[in-house]
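re: ur question from earlier - yeah i can do the single chain one, its not a big deal. heres the input i used so u can compare w yours
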Amino acid sequence: MKKIILPFILLLSITTSALAQKKPVINIDQAFDVAAKQYTNMLASHPDITKFPQSTKKDGTPDNRNSAWWCSGFFGGSLWYLFEYTGDTKWKTAADKWTKAVEKEKYNTSTHDLGFMLYCPFGNGYRLTKNEAYIEPILTGAKSLATRFDPKYGLIKSWDKHADCEYPVIIDNMMNLEFLFWAAKQSKDKRLYDIAVTHADNTLMHHFRPDFSSYHVVCYLPGTKVFRKKTHQGAADSSAWARGQAWALYGYTMMFRETKNQKYLQQAEGIAKFIINHPNLPEDKIPYWDFNAPNLPNEERDASAGAIFASALLELSTYSKKNKAVYFNTAEKMLLSLASPAYTAKISENNNFILKHSVGHKPGNSEINTPIVYADYYYLEALLRYQKSFGK
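and the output i got, formated as C-alpha cells:
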C-alpha cells in the first residue's frame, strides 16, 4: 500500500477529531488489564529488589540492572501508574517497595539522570499518596543533580567523559528538569528553578536545527561556546534520532507547563510539526529508531519513542488552540498502534514487559528490537493522560 503523506496544513483541517467523540476509541481497560497481568508476572519473577527490570538480552534472558543504572526508577514509576488506574493496594505496596529500592541514589552526583531515577517513582508516589517520606529523597536528589550545573557553561553536564568532549550535554537532559522544578517549589529554592530555566534556554539555543530537529550531543567550552555537535545513539551526527526528538518534545512541553513562557510552547509546537509532518514517519505513527536511518524502510521501529511522543502530544494538545486536534489525533493513533498485537506482547511473553520493538542504542549494538522498561512507563503514562482527556 502506498503511504499517503498529508501536509501539516491539511492535517489541521481534519474535523473528525477524537476530542469530539463521547468515548475513547482505545480500550483503556483492556490495555491496563494486559499491563497488570504482565507486571504481576514481572513482580513474581523479580524478588530481588537490587535487580531492576531493564530489557531482554540477545539470548532471550531477562536483562536486569542495579539502582545506579539510569533506568532504575521506571519500574517503580510504572507500578505507581498501575495503582493510579486500578486503585488496587497491591500495586501501592509493590510500588512503595521498588521506590524505596532506589533511594540511595539521592546521593549520586555522577549522573544527570536523577529525574528518571528518583522523580518517576518518588514523585508519582508522593502525588498519589501524599506520603511525606517521599519528599526528602526528591529534595536531596535535586541538590545532587544541581552539582552537575556549572555556571561557566550554563548547562547541566551529562556524562563525565565522552570522546573528546570537555563538557557533553545530551538532549535527554531536558527530561530531568521537571525534577528540579518540583524540588524548587517544595523547598522554595529558586536556584533550582533558575538552573532548569538556564539549561533549557541554552539547549534551545544550541541543540536545534532550523527545522526543529535536535542533535543528540552538544560539546561545550566555557562561556557556553559550542565545540562540536554530534550523535551517540543516532544514525549520524546530522540525523534525527527518534528518541532524542521525543525527549525534546516532552521536555519543552513540560517547560511551558512549569513557566508559562510562550517561547517554550513555540519550541514544542515546532518539534511536534517536525515529527508529525516528517515524510519518514510510518503510517502507524510509530517511528523508526532514527528518522534518517540509512536503510529505510528496512529499519527497526522504536516503540519507546512512540510512547514518549504520545504522552507529550497529549499534554501539548491541552495547551495549543490551533493544533489541538492534530496533536490529540496523532497521539491517539500512536496509542492505538502500541495497544495492538503489533507492539503489545502476549501475556507471559516478552519477559513480562508490556511493549515489544524498542531500540536503545543501535550504533552500540545494544537493545535492538527489544522491550525496554521506559517504553512501558511512558505508554502507561500516555494511557492515563488519554483517559483524563475524556474527563475520567
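DSSP finds 13 helices and nine strands in the chain. not sure if urs matches, ping me
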